[in-house]
User: What shape does this take?
Amino acid sequence: MGHTTHGSTRDYTHDPDAKKRFLYFALALIILWPLLQLAEFNPLAFFDRSNWQVMGNFLSQFFPPNIEAGFLQLVFKATVETLAMATAGTALALLIAVPLGLAMTFSLSISRLGPADGHGVRKFVRSIARLLMVVLRGIPEIVWALLFVRVFGLGAVAGVTAISITYGGMLAKVYAEILESSNSQVSRALILAGSGRVGAFLYGLLPGSAQELASYTVYRWEAAVRASVIMGFVGAGGLGQLMDQSMKMLNGSEVSTILIVFLVLVLFADSLSWYVRRELA
Amino acid sequence: MNIEPARQFCLKCFIHTAALLLAVAASFAYLSFNPFKFFTSESISQLALYANRFFPPDVHSAFLGKILKAMFETIAISAIATLLATVISLLLAIPAAGKYGKKTKEATRFFFNFLRSVPELVFATILVLAVGLGPFAGTLALTLHTTGVLGRLFGEALENHPKTNAQALLLNGSSGAQSFLYATLPGVTAQFVSYALYRWEMNIRMATVLGFVGAGGLGQMLYYELSLLHEPQAASIIIAMLTLVVLVDYVSNKLRRVQMHNQG
Assistant: This one.
């Protein structure tokens, strides 16, 4: 206090932390350099004349978007296909998620409540279920799609199976977590009183957590819509496949139409999911 | 003794459930995809045959070295893209927070929304044309999308941050830039860093698949090996992807727990 009034020589216009900040900055640069090398970071590529020409031609075709009746019909079909893929995929995902989630969740674990027969076996089954879930959801859906296209051929079937597998894993994890975080007193009482686990789930856990479970499922459907658009890039049907074809032919006006439809579709899925989740709440 | 009245028949619930079931049935019908016929012994044996070709995965040290390099490339793509996007969105968040009037605010927000709603893979296909095949195109694609996401979050955080500290510096005669750097920025740094780290986590996952359109990393390698029908090699790459994703998940969970612990 009072340094300045007593005419101290200390210079307050400089950052007192300047040296430390400079050191951190230099350290960051040293770490960054090999990363830049690995990513082949080369802004000069932007100014390459031939690249510019291809890209410029392509982008200039974006206006106006292609609105020929024949093409719009194709786009409409692909849009419906995308929505159908997301819906069917989510429905199949439930077939994986519900049993896996129930098998995994600790709130229905009898061995957690007290000494039970076959504790080791139960624990083993539960960890197998967890491992399976990690593999299912750890591999991105587009990788599954890429693999399934080679089995089922080009088209929506590969996309639906890919969504059901990845989202089955994700839903199972979240279902288990929701069940674990909800009030487990009733289900515990039921199990202790000798009810089976299915009964304990239906009468003890489900009433309290049904709304949250449904709401998360709807949210996943919304994510599935976005994912099904993308999966077309590896040939798994829907809008993405159409966009991929137009991209490969460098047909900018078609790409811009599809892009617009895509944005509208995502907006639609967003608002539908928001509406349903509000209704559920 | 049951004191609760029995549940009334709920017409609305009935209609909603019927509509939902109808939508699911219509979806399967439209795709001519019959889930009951799908799991026949024939299709399952076909799947098993295909899966069999992936085993055993290729574990030659030369190939593993290539995978490791592609893994680092994936991490580099995501790290640089996140860093670039953080810097750009930090700069653009100032107009997005309404510093230069309502019109610029609306314009920047629209720009962010546009960037956010175009998927990374679409950006990547366009950028591959602009800068050629390779990780640089992937980096730029991720940067564009991430800028949209982070810009919006940063803008909102800046707007909601109390202005008292910045005003105190301004009233004491410091410049606008000084008040931003020494009063506003330190207040939001923690939030910004956690947003950026969260995006980095998502970007690592995204960077593994951007390669499908030729934008570098593990994805490009997988796409290449699968086109050559080299399934054992593809299996090793998929295992590497899985390892990366699980590792990132684990680390971020741990960090989140530490952070939550620190904040009480």
